[in-house]
Specification:
The complex is a heterodimer of chains A (116) and B (324). Chain A is of the alpha+beta class and 116 residues long. Chain A has four helices and three strands. The longest helix of chain A has 31 residues. The relative contact order of chain A is 0.13. Helices cover 69% and strands 4% of the residues of chain B. In chain B, helix 1 packs antiparallel against helix 2 and helix 7 runs antiparallel to helix 8. Chain B starts with a helix and ends with a helix. The interface between A and B is medium-sized, with 15 and 19 residues.
């Protein structure tokens, strides 16, 4: 999570809920395992709690939006995840919603700037 | 493999109990912690694993993240928990009063078995009955919630609506009425006490030339007088307290005490009650009229009690909604 004022904590959690779905579905265009996803997201300047990511991955997989498989070839077993065709379709719809919300907010900000 | 990691996973497993995919979840967490320990803390030794575990979070919190956000009882049905429980309990309480008054056991097949109860038994029985009613309603609402269907639950129009949930109005003349009532009740209570101290009973009749004489036998007169004085005192205190607060709890407490005192009156056997000769016909009429009268009063008090508890419950629920 990003560092925000403490009083918006719960609101940030609510906003993140939807955003994390899009983020993970976008990220899993190539196969990744949990830890690599956490590090990748951190490198992009965002942060996701580890104990939040895995339940989310489980829910996405349950709905058929992502698929997973264990890789036992390395020293440590790793579970790799990848987006499915159904997940891609969902990602498209979610991105559409998010872009529309962004457009509406940008318009309102512009209107507010004109009022001032 | 670190013992601490296995202990940590065991704790998570405890809080995850009941989930079919528990082993898979634990494998994912194990894999992540070992990966993190190796990549960020220089290996998979105890210290490194400890630090990775600390970052992952407390076991219960980790397990709770896997819980679906499905409520036990859907928010739309929450108010029915209070509504139906109070309705069911009102019926239960009425049957309890009947069981005490009639001194018989009976069955309302297949829903209810009322054993033969004394007043004290009844007072002990009612809290258990309330919990049973609450549990039954909660169970029905749970099954409706889990079915996922949009069931429209009935609620009779004669009953209370949420819009009625508001504290009693603070009208000036209403307060004057309460004050007058309190003073009158205080005078009545004092007069009854005066009679009791002087004659050891408040049930008296006037006989020309010989002054007041007791209407009931000394023992019954003393017992019933004390109960009636206690009822006057409860009403007086409730009225005075109502001048200071508008809380419905005052009425709830008053009605609970009144119900208990009515129960004590009903315990008094009718046979051999009178100290004067009463014709057999009149005694029979009195016997049934007194019992019916007390039963009606008990039912009215029970209804008021249930109504106030419903209103209090609704207010609490509406506050919860506001907080959420």
């Amino acid at each position: 999570m990003t560092n925000q004022e403490p009083d918006i904590g719960s609101l940030e959690t609510e906003m993140n809920r939807g955003f994390l779905h899009i983020l993970v579905l976008a990220l899993l265009e190539k196969d990744m395992y949990g830890y690599s996803m956490v590090k990748h997201i951190e490198a992009l300047g965002y942060r996701v709690e580890e104990n939040t990511l895995y339940p989310l991955l489980r829910r996405l997989e349950k709905n058929g939006w992502i698929a997973s498989k264990w890789d036992l070839s390395e020293d440590r077993p790793r579970k790799f995840y990848a987006v499915t065709a159904k997940g891609r379709a969902l990602r498209g719809s979610l991105l559409g919603i998010w872009r529309n919300q962004d457009r509406v907010l940008a318009k309102i900000e512009k209107e507010n700037a004109n009022v001032q | 493999m670190s013992n601490k990691l296995e202990a940590y996973l065991e704790e998570i497993s405890h809080f995850l109990s009941g989930r079919a995919e528990r082993e898979e979840i634990l494998s994912e967490i194990r894999s992540h912690i070992l990966e993190k320990a190796a990549a960020e803390h220089g290996g998979t030794g105890d210290d490194a694993v400890d630090r990775a575990i600390a970052a992952y979070g407390p076991p219960r919190r980790v397990a709770e993240r896997y819980a679906e956000d499905r409520p036990i009882i859907a928010p739309a049905y929450k108010r029915y928990l209070v509504r139906y429980t109070t309705l069911l309990f009102a019926v239960h309480a009425a049957f309890t009063v009947l069981a005490v008054v009639l001194g018989k056991q009976f069955v309302v097949f297949p829903f209810l078995y009322m054993p033969e109860l004394g007043v004290i038994d009844a007072l002990m029985y009612l809290p258990t009955a309330f919990l049973a009613d609450l549990g039954l309603v909660a169970l029905v609402l749970y099954f409706i919630t889990q079915s996922g269907k949009d069931v429209k639950l009935p609620w009779p129009k004669f009953a209370l609506d949420l819009d009625e949930v508001e504290p009693p109005r603070k009208a000036f003349w209403g307060r004057v009425g309460t004050a007058v009532g309190a003073v009158v009740m205080l005078a009545v209570t004092d007069f009854a006490l005066y009679l009791f101290v002087r004659y050891h009973t408040i049930f008296l009749y006037l006989r020309e030339g010989s002054g007041p004489r007791p209407f009931l036998t000394p023992e019954a007169g003393r017992y019933l007088s004390l109960i009636v004085i206690a009822m006057f005192a409860v009403s007086t205190m409730a009225l005075f307290v109502k001048l200071l607060t508008r809380s419905r709890w005052v009425d709830v407490v008053k009605n609970v005490l009144t119900l208990g005192l009515i129960g004590l009156i009903l315990r008094q056997p009718f046979d051999g009650l009178f100290a004067v000769a009463v014709p057999a016909k009149l005694e029979t009429v009195l016997r049934y009229n007194v019992k019916i009268g007390l039963l009606v009063v008990a039912l009215i008090v029970t209804w008021e009690l249930v109504r106030d508890v419903v209103r209090l419950g609704r207010r609490n629920i509406s506050h919860i909604h506001l907080i959420q």
